[in-house]
Amino acid sequence: MHQVLPMGAERRLRLYLDLEWIFDRLAMETSFRHYGPDRHPFRQHARAFLEQYIGRDDAVLDLGCAKGDMSAMLASVAREVVGVDHDAAAIAYARKTHTNANLAFHDSDALAYLKDHPKRFDVLILSHILEHLDRPEEFLKTFKDYFAHIYIELPDFDKTYLNLYRKDLGVKLIYTDDDHVSEFDRLELRAILDRLGIRIEAAEYRFGIQRLWCRVQQDG
Fold this sequence. Notes:
By secondary structure, this protein is of the alpha/beta class. It is 40% helix and 20% strand. The chain has one domain (9-216): Vaccinia Virus protein VP39 (Rossmann fold). The chain has helices at 9-34, 41-50, 69-75, 88-97, 110-116, 136-143, 161-169, 186-195, and strands at 59-63, 80-85, 103-107, 123-127, 149-155, 198-206, 209-216. A seven-stranded mixed beta sheet has the order 3-2-1-4-5-7-6, with helices on both faces.
């Protein structure tokens, strides 16, 4: 096919980049149907990272918890976990599926929930949240002072040169998922955190994912 397609190098590269994106996306979506939530390498790697830092006495807020798989995993590590999401159907599923005694789910605005429960939580979990937001820096600024630590997990735009080609060519299929507003390379994300006084204490960059364990620096 490579030899017989009647097209120039740029058009051919655009085609191959789109095909790579499509099959990568299909493989990822299918993997979540093949593996159970506890068996998926995606979750196992997150757990292995977080177990190093979340303490048995920590109270954790999982913002944007969806169906609660990450929250349930954290409940075996932390003292208390609360999952918050605006998706009522997802929260109903989470409550039915995950019934740990130290785990609760709320269909609520996260900021409103925090204002009603001041100084309760030690750790904020932001697992695949920031890439969906129009103003991620403003979002972090709003929430950071409620927590001592923040865990951030999101796609790593630096995972491959192919993303640089996509950016240079202006192709449409550039981010890991087509509902992402933006994705960050490692320097971009670090710059945002530095401006907000959020210090990266540990980082892992594996398999196209950035995992950051951060400490919120107190003013003064």
